[in-house]
Amino acid sequence: MSTTDIETTTTATDVALCWLRITGCLLLLSVHGLPKLLHFDHELGVIEDPFGLGSWLTLSLAIFAEVLCPVFIVLGVLTRLATLPVLFLLAVSVIWVHPEWSLAEGQFAWLLLIVFSTIFVAGPGRLALGTRLAHHWPLLREL
Description:
Belongs to the DoxX family. This is DoxX family protein. It comes from Pseudomonas izuensis. It is found in: Cell membrane. The chain crosses the membrane at residues 12-33, 53-74, 81-98, 110-129. This protein has seven helices and no strands. The protein is mainly alpha-helical. The chain has one domain (3-140). The protein is 71% helix and 0% strand.
C-alpha cells in the first residue's frame, strides 16, 4: 500500500468522528442554538449574564457558539478552532451559571463537554470537508 492509499482509506475511526461531529452538533443546535436564534427577543429576558457583558452581547455570543460553530464542526472546517467557543460556553454553563446542578441535573452539559472535547482532541477525521480542502488551502489544515 502506498502513502496515498493510506491517506485516502476511510477507517472506522473516521466514520465514528463524522458521526460524533454530526450528532453532537445536531443536539446542540436543536436543544440550545436554534431556540435561542428563533426566539431571540424572549431569550434576551431570560439569559444569564455571568460576566456582565449585557444580555444582547451574551446571547449573541451564545448563538455564535451554538449555531455558527456547529455548522463549521459538521462540515469539518476549522473544526478544532470551532470547538473552543462551544467548550467555553459549556464550561461557563456548568461552572458559573449553574454551579448548583447535581451531576444528574447537568448531565446533558457534561455529555456535550465530553463530545466536543473529544472532537477537539481527535480532530474531524478524514470524512470532513476541511480535510479535503486543506490540500488546496493550507490555512484550513487542522492543527
